[in-house]
Amino acid sequence: MNALSLHVSSDREPLAMPDERVGDEGLREILPIQSDYPDRLRQMAKAPTVWLRGRAELLSSRPICTVVGSRACSRLAEARALELGRKLGERGVLVVSGGALGIDAAAHTGALAAGGATCAVLGTGVDRLYPQQNVPLLAALARTGLLLSMFPLGAPPRPFHFRVRNELMAALADVVVVVEAQANSGSLITARHALRFGRPLLGFQGSEGTMSLFSAGAQAVHSVDAVVEFVASRSAGGERPGAPSEELARVPQSIHVPTETMLLSDEDAAKRVLAALAATASADVGEVCARTGLSAAECAAVLVDLELADRCTRLAGGRYIVHAPLS
């Protein structure tokens, strides 16, 4: 079951398993004012207190790749995520995902199988393992990797928790990869935040959700090895050297956003983009930029946001139309 679609009534919480398989070694609460707070999370508009369980040093000792995708994924995508997790783990990359079924579980499992490092960003407290099917996997991460959450101990798996935690997964990453996603997949929220934070965003072709990201600044990728080489090349000096691999197609080129350009409020940017779309039959990213004065990266991120909120639709050819009145 998709965690984002869970119905939570006022008198019953979704089942999350208190972890009785491992002790509380490595359990820490870290405030943004502390010196060992994860630097990447300081880029968030309001850096949250985080709870860690496991090897906190993993966040500062190696490159980080966030791997996301659908819970109800295809066998091909699951195999691809497993291979990606394994090969990234072999190269010393920390594999971050959300601990969910499907793509998340496959990426974590692949990294563990290679003896690599992996971190699950949870929509619960780090002492409550969810979903139940992944309890053994998440317990293994608590022992050899890392569990991270912005929700306090004992927090249950509420639907909005999973949307909120997606921002953390993007903020932590050096690179974000979408393996497979349906049109309204929660992984697209992570992708939107990746664009906003200026993280390189890669997506495998073949699913409706990933196809919608390419006009927004994502790079299309055709093989696991191309992703691994891209991540490894960035870890050497922070910049990607040389020409792009033939297996890494730009559709269009990735856009990087300086920190200072992320201060524009989402509400203001969304209103400007919606107004621009409402003034014409359809528009592409470039036309929206010209009408709003926003950068290409800002427009791309807002358009993905508006698609997820069902306020606009991306047509064939990368043009957008508004289909809700501007209020």
Q: Could you give the count of β-strands? A: 14
User: pLDDT below 50 for ≥5 consecutive residues: which ranges?
Assistant: 1-15, 239-265
Shape: globular
Q: Provide the CATH topology of the largest domain.
A: Rossmann fold
Terminal residue distance: 34 Å
- Residue-averaged pLDDT: 80
Q: What is the domain tally?
A: 2
Counting DSSP H or I runs of 4 or more residues, the number of helices is 11
Which bin fits the share of residues in helices? 25-40%
CATH architectural category of the largest domain: 3-Layer(aba) Sandwich
N-to-C series of helices and strands: EEEHEHEHEEHEHEHEHEHEHHHEE
Coarse structural class: alpha/beta
Instruction: Give the amount of beta strand, in percent.
Output: 15-25%
Account of the protein in words:
By secondary structure, the protein is α/β, with parallel strands linked by helices. The protein is 37% helix and 15% strand. The chain folds into two domains: 10-250, Rossmann fold (3-Layer(aba) Sandwich); 264-322, Arc Repressor Mutant, subunit A, CATH 1.10.10.10. It has eleven helices and 14 strands. The strands form three sheets. It has a ten-stranded mixed beta sheet, sandwiched between helices. Strands 1-7 form a two-stranded antiparallel ribbon. Strand 9, helix 6 and strand 10 (201-204) form a beta-alpha-beta unit. The radius of gyration is 19 Å and the shape is globular. The two termini are 34 Å apart. The relative contact order is 0.12.
